[in-house]
Amino acid sequence: MSPYEHLDRPFPPKAGVYAVRAGPIITKNINHFLNGEDLEEYVPQPEFLALLMTGDKKAVGTRFGFTFDGKWVWNMKDFIDVNFMKLFDPYFLFNDYDNKGFSEPVENNELFDEDQKSNNEDKERARGVVADMSVEKAVSLMKSGEEEEGFMEQFMILERMKKDEEFRDGVIDGCKIK
Q: Comparing C-alpha atoms, which of 76, 70, 77, 48 is closest to residue 161?
């Protein structure tokens, strides 16, 4: 029996995040199959962050049943998308790609190190701010004005909401249109 049979819609939804997350399991299962080993079960996450750019340097997002919008959502989506696409950029995957082409793959994504260091510092700073943040402050940030461009604290609020049910419920309730 599928753990999703109780849903009134097909699951998982048609969203790229499910294909991306299934990829490593599929790779492992091909190897397991070829070696006569037991296959791993892919259990999709129950929901995901959906972001849609609206073409005006703004975007709309939804997670946990509520929506948010503005320039900060655009910037968050751009940050996520650019970092994902680097996984396929030969300039990040091969040493001196212009001169050597595909002949020298980098070790363990070492060319990502500088970018990741900066991104991780920003994330850790924001994660620290959000760790002790009140629900009221989180609601205020999630409802940031249309011109707000910073997104890392909102991104970390969404991360905290995945793990902290009481915080999540408070933010969702505070973001409801009253």
A: 48
- Are 94 and 106 a contacting pair, CB within 8 Å? yes
pLDDT along the chain (178 residues), means of 10: 64 77 89 95 85 91 90 93 82 83 75 66 91 95 85 94 95 85
pLDDT at position 21, please?
Answer: 82
Sheet arrangement for strand 59-63: 50-53, 59-63, 66-70
Is 177 within 8 Å of 79 (Cβ atoms)?
A: no
d(CA 78, CA 54): 12
DSSP secondary structure string, 9-28? S-SS-S-HHHHHHHHHHHHH
Are the C-beta atoms of 66 and 172 separated by less than 8 Å? yes
Q: Are 11 and 44 in contact (CB under 8 A)?
A: yes
> Which residues does 130 contact at the CB level (< 8 Å), separation at least 6?
138, 153, 156, 157, 159, 160
Beta bridge partners of 60: 52, 69
- The structure's pTM equals 0.73
72, 74, 79, 83 alpha-carbon torsion, rounded to 10°: 160
Q: For residue 69, what are the β-bridge partners?
A: 60
Angle between helices 71-85 and 152-163 (to 10 degrees): 80
